[in-house]
Design goal:
Layout lengths: L2 E5 L11 E11 L3 E10 L9 E8 L4 H16 L10 E8 H10 L12 E8 L5 E2 L7 H16 L2 E2 L8 E6 L2 E6 L6 E2 L7
Antiparallel strand pairs: 1-2, 2-3, 3-4, 4-6, 5-6, 7-9, 8-11, 9-10
Length: about 200
Amino acid sequence: MGVSTLFTEDRTDSIDVPFSYYEPKLLRHKAQHQVFLCDYDTFPNPTGGSNLSCILKLFSSRAQNSFKREVSAYTVIESNLIYSKPVAKKLWSGRWDASKYKEFVQVGNFPSVLRRSERNINVLMISFIKHGKELSRISLTEQSVRAAIKALQTLHSVGIVYGNISASQVLVWRERERYKAKWVDLSSSIVAASQRKA
């Protein structure tokens, strides 16, 4: 397993935690953003190939509002004491300069979302939900649908209005005798004014 590239970035919570990304796989490509599945490791304390996986969401400056909405929603979720989080865990968010982004996409010969005039790309790194499957791709059961609705209600209870409700936007899986669910793609969400940070 070769290193695709090494990025050293500060976490938004101001703790300096650099990461190495391995074997990126492009999951979605649109004109203003991309989604990758990657293995990652921390540096300089690598875990020795423990196969940690993450989702990297990359937003061009033209998608700045989508990036801000998504990071704002994660901030609200992290600041509330919720036993069962309705979304994946945010691991890091920040910005790469154009040269780091180009190095990353060149490894897999991936298309770019940057225009020549753009100098930065916004990055959101979230945990990968290993056993999750889109609700739209499984046989629906009352329990799986209830899990999805419960996770959505949890978002609403902390002041987040999910803006893109569809069965393809929620991941579900069975854990023991229960279904679990997590909503993905918070870029269309709205954080209630009372929940926004000043």
